[in-house]
Design goal:
Layout: H1 2-14, H2 28-36, H3 40-57, H4 62-89, E1 96-98, H5 101-115, H6 120-133, H7 149-156, E2 161-164, E3 167-170, H8 175-188, H9 196-220, H10 235-243, H11 252-268, H12 280-290, H13 292-315, H14 337-364
Parallel strand pairs: 1-3
Antiparallel strand pairs: 2-3
Helix pairs in contact: 1-13, 1-14, 3-5, 3-8, 3-11, 4-5, 4-13, 5-8, 6-8, 9-11, 12-14, 13-14
């Protein structure tokens, strides 16, 4: 979530009319800033599935887990359409509703609420096949379904539609691959219950295997991403082209590129010796990791407010200019990338006390309703 905040800060503060992933116009710093944030959503959705499995190891029955997943899923969808929308636009009258990561988490949890009644291996196979094969559907267009085009827009993305008169829904995060990612994360859960040595070995093999699969499939330029890589003006930009995979909807290669290193990082992270204290940075990240949704709901309006404060003296932008009405290309709006990083760090620091308080509250009062935040 902290890295995701960097991308949202970039979107609101930089004001750049340049697409960070368009190699014809971007620069290395901008591309890498955008690329590193790609790891957030896949790992977050994947580990949400893993957390669901681990709750059964702590004694939660399948009916209890299923009930929690579908109720929390519906709650997240509600939050996307209300609080998240409000954070981006400071108005519930904006003509767009965008289905982003909170929306797809909610939908995926609702589907997983049904899948948990299947054997764990069946859920894992479902997730793996969904992720591996969904690019076979790339040639299907939503318009081919006529009046039901909106269904395909939700399932596989790339199609916006009018929900209500004057209100358009933009499903940026398509359900098919993301539901598979969460199901695969659920199937991944048993690995974390293995002994330390065996667990680390399995995670290393899996992580390296996913990275190797990414490199091998990407080299062929035949499957796994609708946009092939190509030789660019320099070796660095050729490498950028190689890892510049499609996020909307996430291609097989995008997911291999992000989940593989994520699992490797998890494998290489050693536990602290008994009685030892974690470093300051680690302890800070643990605080945010314990309250990710709480952080997410607070960081959007805070970034929005800071972006307006920074830019108002020069550009006179009204609140709400970052959601459905981008600043005009000729306005000159935007700040240097170092300002983006400075505001991102400021946001993280400003939200730490609130997140620390809420994390302690959840520890002291393990109420069921607090688990929904």
């Amino acid at each position: 979530m902290v890295l995701m905040a960097l991308d949202h800060t970039r979107g609101m503060v930089s004001g750049s009319q340049i697409d960070p992933t368009n190699l014809a116009e971007t620069n290395a710093a901008l591309f890498l800033t955008r690329w590193i944030t790609h790891f957030c959503a896949p790992i977050f959705v994947f580990l949400a599935g893993t957390a669901a499995f681990l709750s059964t190891a702590r004694g939660k029955t399948k009916p209890e887990l299923s009930r929690f997943l579908w109720t929390r899923g519906l709650w997240l969808i509600f939050l996307e359409f209300t609080f998240v929308r409000l954070g981006w636009s400071f108005s519930l009258k904006s003509p767009f509703v965008v289905g982003q990561v909170i929306w797809v988490l909610g939908c995926s949890m609702s589907v997983l609420a049904v899948l948990v009644y299947l054997p764990i291996r069946a859920v894992a196979i479902f997730g793996i096949l969904t992720v591996a094969l969904h690019n076979c559907l790339d040639g299907i267009r939503a318009q081919d379904f006529g009046a039901y085009a909106w269904v395909w827009g939700i399932l596989h993305g790339g199609y916006s539609f009018e929900m209500l008169p004057g209100l358009k829904f933009v499903p940026s995060y398509a359900l098919i691959p993301w539901v598979g990612v969460m199901a695969a994360g659920y199937g991944f859960g048993p690995m974390l219950l293995l002994g330390a040595s065996r667990r680390r070995q399995r995670l290393l093999w899996l992580g390296f295997g996913l990275v190797a699969a990414f490199v091998t499939i990407r080299l062929t330029n035949q499957y796994g991403d609708p946009h092939p890589w190509s030789v660019q003006r320099s070796c660095l930009y050729t490498c950028f082209s190689f890892v510049n995979c499609t996020k909307y909807p996430p291609s097989l290669l995008f997911l291999l590129m992000t989940l593989g290193p994520g699992i490797l990082f998890l494998a290489m992270r050693r536990g602290e010796p008994e009685g030892a204290k974690s470093g300051l940075l680690t302890r800070g990240l643990i605080v945010f990791g314990r309250v990710p949704l709480f952080f997410y709901l607070l960081h959007l309006p805070l970034i929005h407010l800071l972006a307006v404060m920074v830019s108002l003296p020069h550009y006179r932008l009204a609140l709400g200019s970052f959601y459905y009405a981008r600043p005009p290309a000729d306005s000159g709006y935007g700040q240097e990338l170092w300002v983006v990083y400075a505001i991102w760090i400021l946001v993280v620091c400003l939200l730490f006390p609130a997140c620390y308080w809420f994390a302690r509250l959840k520890q002291r009062r393990p109420s069921s309703w607090l688990s929904y935040l």
